[in-house]
Amino acid sequence: MEIIDGKVLAQNVRENLKSEVEELKKRGISPKFAVILVGNDKASLTYVKSKNKACRELGIECEEKILNENTNMEELLGIIDDLNKRKDISGILLQSPIPTHLDINEAFKRIAPEKDVDGFNPCNVGKLCLNQDTFVSCTPYGIMRMFEAYNIPLDGKSAVVIGRSNIVGKPMALSLLNKNATVTICHSKTQDLKEITKKADIVIAAIGKKHFVTDDMVKERSSCYRCWNK
User: For the whole model, what pTM was predicted?
Assistant: First the structure.
């Protein structure tokens, strides 16, 4: 069994990105990333801190917009509009989840497609469907990078994605389909899940439950990838 070490791959990617940022700065281009956080969700606060730290390590400036949980939709959209207009902002990310009184889909739609680093604007989602160059949600994109780095063939392979969220499951399925895999999407209403996964060459668990996929759900010599907290 081969274990894919995502941490080693991530470090290599970061080293390459650091060099790219240095080259951009030599050309007078200083990348700046803006992250919006609404509310005080502990996990989201941790993710934002992690993003800020990663940016600093790469030499990218990170601007945080921390909003009160009572922020209304007009205020949130106003901040997004301001960041869209600012020429010094290269990318915008709205940390999810956001308070339930806010419409996250409307907020994603408001982020300019060219600054939508998470790939949630409908324009970028459509480009992914059409197999066009675009931003892709980070977890599916990271998994695709792992397939590429470890020379794992996808052409003609049978792949099962467990989970249908807009953040991971659906973009993951589309990314695999764009690489000519035969994709099956399973979810909470799927019947005989075990029988489906056992026939797959690749199984990706894009759900929020650890250890959900067990050994008896995966056929011998197949590949299984788990995306936690999604």
Answer: 0.89
Distances (CA, A) of 13 to 2, 23, 204: 20, 15, 22
- Catalogue the E-assigned strands of 80-181: 91-94, 158-162
95 catalytic residue (yes or no): yes
118 included as an active-site residue: yes
Choose the catalytic residue: 65, 115, 116, 118: 118
The rounded distance, in Å, linking the Cα atoms of 162 and 217 is 12
Out of 65, 95, 115, 201, the active site residue is 95
**Confidence band of 28 (pLDDT split at 50, 70, 90):** very high
Order across the sheet with 91-94: list the strands: 61-67, 32-38, 91-94
User: Is 132 a known active-site residue?
Assistant: no
What's the token pair of residue 199? 């026939």
Q: Residue 34 and residue 12: Cα distance in Å, rounded?
A: 24
